[in-house]
Amino acid sequence: MDIKKIRELVDLMEEKDLLNLEYGHDDNYISLTRNTAVQTVAVPQVAAAPVAAPAAKTPSGKVETSPMVGVFYSAPSPNDPPFVKVGQKVEAGDTLGIIEAMKIMNPLEATQSGIIEEILVSNAEVVEFGQPVIRYKA
User: Fold this and answer.
1) Please, what's the largest Cα pairwise distance for the chain?
2) Positive or negative: CA dihedral 77, 134, 101, 111
3) pTM score, whole prediction
4) Is 8 helix (H, G, I), strand (E, B) or coil?
């Protein structure tokens, strides 16, 4: 595929405000993804009367992070039970979920043994590289 065609595809993505574009013709295939930075804006808050609230629990324990960008699936198929549940003991190497990236199903395996304290993402949620997915009890 020549650079002119790639530039045309990039221009098309910008023109149509597309985040992803896949193109295939003959033996050529390309998948393009735009990196869109999220801008946060600080909103001034009006001071309110102090309210006694319980101290927020700071999460502790180690986490499993996503090794890639993709879609997290908690079960092998929609009709199957999830790979893991909160409170379940897992061993290093156990499958915690699946991350689909570029139509390939990649198992997310436990890198350590422990008890699942929290599942930090929902089924079919897009995850980023390095995003915490599972938290173990400390």
Assistant:
1) 67
2) negative
3) 0.57
4) helix
